[in-house]
Amino acid sequence: MHSLLEGEELLMEKNEAADSIDYGIGKFAAEAGITVDDLTPLFDVSSYPEEQRDLVTECNRRIDEANSKYRIARIREDMFAKGLRAGMYFCTFDRNENMLGFEFNDETRQMLGYDGLEDLPNEFDSWVKTLVPEEKEAIVKLFWDSVRIHRELPDITHATYRMRRKDGSIIWVTGAGRFVRRPDDGSLEIYMGCYRDITAQLELEEHLKIIEAIGKVFNFSLFIDVSDMSYRMISTNEFVEMAPKDPDAFVFLRNNVDATVAESFKNSLYDWLDKDKILAAIEEQGSTSMEFYSDGAGRWFNGVFMVGDRNEDGTLAHIVYGCQDTTDAKLHSLAQQKKISEYEEKVYIDSLSEIRNRKFLDEKLVFEPCRAVVMADIDLFKTINDTIGHRGGDEAIKLVAKLLERSVRKDDVVIRYGGDEFMMVFFNITKEDLENKLARIKSSLREITIDGNPDVRITMSFGAAFGTELVNNLIGTADKALYESKKTRDAYTVIEI
Q1: Rounded average pLDDT per 10-residue block, the chain, 497 residues
Q2: Final residue in a domain of this structure, among 201, 225, 258
Q3: Residue 331 lies in a domain
Q4: Which whole-number Å values give the CA distances from 295 to 239, 324, 362, 481, in the listed order?
């Protein structure tokens, strides 16, 4: 089986994967197993008349089924002959890579404290129930993910993870698994391997190797000693290196907050980074996390604390802190704009234009990431008011708001910023599409007519800031772009961050 560390082993070369077996189970040599080459060949269906092909296809199916049974029998015999007196598992799959069978050997049952086949049946669910509960879902998912992408993996994989014995005690096991693929189409036919209990000899320095592998997943990570909050840096980045170092992990993390995190997130992160609260959350839930935005990196991150390892009495010995970049997922989530409640509809909708108002921007949008912010206002609006009165000016604002609202997707946002000034926020748009959209809006404005005043024409100037950033961080650039457009009016300017 694979541990949560296997994702990082996808990049290992085959020889490195095979070498790593020595650490796990010593003399296990399934990778040097026999080659089964005396199989009955399949018929070439295209060589037969069309009216016979269904029959030939059925013959091939039966030959393939017989070949598969023969291969499985021979490879099983070879594996069990060469394996140590260690725990073993054996899975078989059909050509669609659905599991056909799963079984343990007697050594596995003994290692886990079970007595015979009836006590621990040969079923996939039997393996699942031996996993530690808080790790079960992730390890099972990784098992099936590994089956799904087995062609991208080396033949041999190595894993170290925890299992639960029948009496409830937890052991560490290490081992290796082997993919056996069908020679004709490369589909997974067999997945087998063996493992042994290494709990007694598992030293801290060995466990650190595991933690280091986990650290490769994170942009920044620490392995923290719970007794004194000292730590080992596992992975780091240029923004972390800017923060003042401190021997206490939590002081160091707060220094990172001071150095890189956006102001609006600092207080909540300070509250979260409380040692007692973190330890209590890990004991209760297995992990605790918080999302934040880094001004320094210009990216969103998710900070996570989780179990590192435990003392013999079950208390936490070490915890792991990891920081993952979540920007892409965040943008995708925000593209599915949440519906605002009936109460919010009243509070955040401008009464004149019937689009969202400045309050919505300030309270809901200003610290969200986006792809572009556009500032726009009506050219010579004072002249329009002077010509057709303030009611005519109000009508112009309503018509412009409706046009802008129609011109964006439902996931994007149009805001009446104030007076005759508007803002548009786009969550997923390319620079080219943004420029084309502004050109179309500018053209459509010429078709607006105000009742009773056919001679009054409306034009607007647009200033856009393009780049993945917080809305708040793009407003100033959009204002500068608007200033450039106002020099000629009826124009748009796009500044890329």
Answers
A1: 42 38 34 61 80 80 75 62 64 92 88 91 93 87 87 80 88 81 88 75 53 66 89 83 90 91 87 93 88 84 85 85 82 57 72 92 90 96 89 92 93 94 95 96 91 86 94 95 96 95
A2: 201
A3: no
A4: 10, 15, 19, 22
Beta strands in 182-296 (DSSP E): 188-197, 220-225, 231-235, 287-294
> Which tokens go with 371?
């792809």
- Is 332 within the bounds of a domain? no
Question: Could you give the CA distance from residue 303 to residue 275 in angstroms, rounded to a whole number?
Answer: 14
In this structure, what are the phi and psi dihedrals at residue 182, rounded to the nearest 5 degrees? -65, 140
The angle subtended at Cα 81 by Cα 77 and Cα 86, nearest 5°, is 115
Secondary structure (3-state) at 404:
helix
The side-by-side arrangement of strands in the sheet containing 231-235 is: 231-235, 220-225, 316-325, 299-310, 287-294
Strand segments, DSSP code E, in 337-384 are 369-378
Claim to verify: residue 353 and residue 321 sit in the same structural domain: no
Distance CA 291, CA 387 (A): 52
- Domain with residue 429: its CATH number is 3.30.70.270
Give the domain extent around 248: 206-325
| Residues facing residue 179 across a β-bridge | 191
Are 10 and 123 within one domain?
A: yes
Q: In Å, how far are 255, 297, 303, 336 from 231, measured between CA atoms?
A: 15, 24, 16, 39
d(CA 202, CA 431): 54
Residue 330 lies in a domain: no
Domain shared by 366 and 428, yes or no: yes
C-alpha of 134 from chain center: 19
% helix, strand, coil for the chain, step of 5: 45, 25, 30
Tokens describing residue 240: 């972390």
Q: Say if 136 falls within a structural domain.
A: yes
Integer angstrom CA distances of residue 211 from 92, 221, 229, 315, 419: 32, 10, 17, 18, 57
SS3 277: helix
Helix (H, G, I), strand (E, B) or coil at 394: helix
Instruction: Please measure the distance between the N-terminal and C-terminal CA atoms of the chain and give it in whole angstroms.
Output: 46
Whether residues 218 and 186 fall in one domain: no
The answer to whether 161 and 172 have CB atoms below 8 angstroms apart is yes
